[in-house]
Write a structure and sequence with these properties.
Length: 469
Amino acid sequence: MGSDATESREAQARIAFLAGHDSLTGLPNRSGFQDALGTLCRTVRTAERPSALFYLDLDGFKAVNDSRGHLVGDRLLRAVTARLLAIGEPHSLFRLGGDEFAMVVRDLGRPAAEALAARVVAELRRPFQIDEARLEVGVSVGIAYMPDDAIEPASLLMRADLALYAAKADGKGCWRTFDPSLEERVVRQRQFDLDMRAALAADEMELHYQPLVDMRSGRVAGFEALLRWNKPGYGWVSPGEIIPIAEATGFIVEIGRWALRRACTDARTWSDLKIAVNISSIHVRMPGFHAEVAAVLRETGLAPDRLEIEITESVLLDHGPEVLENLKRLRATGVRIALDDFGTGYSSLSYLTEFPFDKVKVDRSFVRDLQGRPEKVAVVEAIARMARALSMSVTVEGVETRQQLDVLRDKRCDIAQGFLYSPARPVHEVAALIARIEGAAPPPSVSASDPDGSPTADARPVLSLARAS
Ligand code: C2E
Ligand code: MG
Ligand code: MG
């Protein structure tokens, strides 16, 4: 009887433990966290040594889980847990679910809490070795202080979540502390995010097409697809506003899939012209990207050598093996890869030998005041010479005047893109555009201020994306 009672007490204790703990990592779970947060908020604290709530969300975990499978994903979560526990500062760690964790740091004060957050970020940035796989994730951290930011568990959590959202929006792999201005910014961004998703679903996003013109023959070689959103009751929203938010939330991948399918479908009917589609680094880093493109080509019937994928060099910063794999596989099917906005970022020349690019697109900042700027001309000329040596063609963006075109042609650039020929226009204008550009009529002198110019030129900013400090 006595041993029965012991067994039943043990079973009850076990059940109680399981109810409050996560079976994968052994950490207290969300319910354990709620209890701890309640206790924390009931304790009287002084503003001199506030306690902190860290809200952690792994960056890139979903990609690992999707590509390597759940077993590897589970082991990665355990390895993450071990690293967080090994940091050794006085904190309690909780797994809230999925790839979300929380840390409660009592009475540490701000400077020490922030140093701890920096360590958390640095620890999880180091690659994880799971069997033969070297896995890279990272973590974004949002911090809210008790009692400074909130004294109620729910609002403390909400504020740490807002700070986390800001950390994600600021490029991930960093920590941010709550501040009241975040509240408004994040509420607006979340609304914008919802509106964007609804717009894509309701077919309110469009692709407009900007001609790419062969500088020597004057013939249209292809078009670049550029995202346009005519937000009802608002007006044109530029990609410059859509893309940072869509990248922060991951929605950019859906935009990329949609844009690929739409552009390939539209281009199917344009005899043999090329179609260039911009793809975000986030998307190119996904292991199955090459297969997605192949599927779209099959479904739409577009010949692979008519598709160009435009990527920016940010994809090559801290890239994993997937990037090279995707680019090589795509190229093997005949799809071309262009390096966009060349000359604006790090422009590490090693990228050009490491990766199989077919084309560089010289950023328009090099063209802006080409006249009377021999140093700019010299840079463009050097890029063109280098590209030729590496068997890449050179497109120059932002060509707005005849004079610029003449200089660039003289320096042996290949393709011009810019308002000189046309801004991006809706699909139904493509045929007329080609006829006009290739016809006898000289191109009208379109400029950035032209009322018929790119919607970008007159799009009002919806959001100010001022960075949180
Ligand atoms: P980008 O790929 O470098 O595209 C060229 C940008 O330069 C476009 O801006 C185009 O309208 C603008 N532009 C072209 N010619 C001229 C010119 O002569 N003068 C001036 N001042 N501007 C010119 P847009 O459409 O605002 O796009 C901005 C960026 O947003 C693009 O730069 C691209 O990186 C990104 N983007 C656009 N559409 C998509 C998309 O569907 N997916 C992704 N991931 N990114 C996109
Ligand atoms: Mg582009
Ligand atoms: Mg560009």
